[in-house]
Amino acid sequence: MKIIKYESFKEGEDMSNWIGVDIGGTKILGALFDDKGNKIKTEKKSSKSSKGKEKVIDQLKKVLDTLLEDSKDVKGIGIGVPGVIKDGKIAFTPNMPLNEFNLIDFVKEEYKIDCFVENDANASMYGEWKFGAAKGAKNAVGYFVGTGIGGGLILNNSLYRGSYNFAAEIGHMNVYPQGPLCGCNLRGCLESLSSKVAIQREITRKRERGEKTVIKKSDLKNIVKSSTLKSAYDEGDKVVRSILNDVAFYLGINAGSIINLLNPDVILYGGGIMEALGEELLPIIIETAKQYSIPHIFDTCEFKLSKLKDDACLYGAFSLIQEKVGA
Amino acid sequence: MKIIKYESFKEGEDMSNWIGVDIGGTKILGALFDDKGNKIKTEKKSSKSSKGKEKVIDQLKKVLDTLLEDSKDVKGIGIGVPGVIKDGKIAFTPNMPLNEFNLIDFVKEEYKIDCFVENDANASMYGEWKFGAAKGAKNAVGYFVGTGIGGGLILNNSLYRGSYNFAAEIGHMNVYPQGPLCGCNLRGCLESLSSKVAIQREITRKRERGEKTVIKKSDLKNIVKSSTLKSAYDEGDKVVRSILNDVAFYLGINAGSIINLLNPDVILYGGGIMEALGEELLPIIIETAKQYSIPHIFDTCEFKLSKLKDDACLYGAFSLIQEKVGA
Fold it and tell me: Which CATH number fits domain A17-125+311-325: 3.30.420.10, 3.30.420.40, 3.40.50.10490, 3.40.640.10?
């Protein structure tokens, strides 16, 4: 991506600000940062994805306008988007009406401010690596377990994007060849067994088989909330506990494979499910990974829960634009 | 690893030579190279692994002595070894009596020549990347399918070793959670389903069940030869064809996962099984990988058979020592 330095950005100025944005299927989060990564101000809006592209862009503008109100000399805007980013454009975003949208050009034209766009899981991993639980790692692998499962890779101290920017689709690695059909139309992907979509499918299936659970039909109307699962888990709900055990098992099998392949020093877990249930699931993940990795390699890997949680993508997006423009 | 420049290596000399060595469980291969990577001379000895450490070292010395006979100014010796290399030493080599042996110090003391030691699959992948089928790739993944399955990773234009030099154990990635016990004591590793050990186990099992095959009991006395499998395949042997179909299927599943994770531009297959049966197995591997990877990522990946074959490790070992010492 070519970064244009606008003339308004004079070098040698004492203070400058940056904006990090996380565009998600349900909400748009934004934050204003100073040069050192201190978060000065935040803003949040519903993304209104179901109402189409123009509405999502309106919501983004509202977030940016609010953040820009009191700030001075914003040198750049970094944005994380749940999709495939190619040459700085959104090439494909399955859960949002922004396919083929040139977000960078839009921001540059609208605000005359430099912009960088990155896949949200990549940005989150970058945030955790710069400011969070993976700080200082040489090689780190991130799993972001929510409705789907995103991944991010830090390899040899930099964000790994692969040959064509498509890397880190960790949720679509196979963990069970004869496993369930995944939303991506593959079979037995990690996402088909350990995501919230998988949890929802299994709860529905078990309810229909007559198994008793505190999860109500109304909880499953939209995708089940992580907090609802956490309450059910704490109440000792057998259906939810059994399903979450499987979720952690498949996450652990994949972690074992990743350890053998990449010998990372850190594996990190974020996303809604892990934020709500990380303490419960992590021990099962670790024990399973141990069963599916070579002992001397397993021993060099630390397992961590996200530190930045919902803010990981914001921090990563901020860091990425700051590094591109030059602090 | 600290490389000591010996005084005998004067800079500015016109010509120099390098030695690459491949220490394997059954044979030790060595070659003398010129600065440009032309192979001047080769030497081969049985490694006599069963006769213990001293014997293996004797055999290595014979190979090196022969290569050094007519050469002048050998600037370095690169060696590939089937094991885990840690701080330049052989930390662990399951199939050879060289555990904990400091091969670098031995060569430096014995020959007063600089030495570099690398895992053999890493060295082979490096050779293929510098001189072979993966030349020019930004990100490439190598599978070396023989008695076991070794792996090598080129990521962002360099050999990827992981945080503690343990990376690329691709043969021990899980491809089937309830799969067979692997030699490493994990379950369902790629190696437990797609290596020559797995093929041998399946042929034995099927023979004992009374299934008809041209593979004789005597063929299975030691590990079955790749050439024997190739002949059986060509004769249309149903047992061998069915087993090799499964071998390729699991290799393909893993390739699909690797594509989704790393978005490599090249996946390369070497090792005895692929040298003998690559043309037959590759189409099945590719078709399976396609079924287990995201289409737009799959489309960016080329599948290749090893070009350097048995010489891959030699070329890689030569390249690695040359780069360490400086050409």
Answer: 3.30.420.40
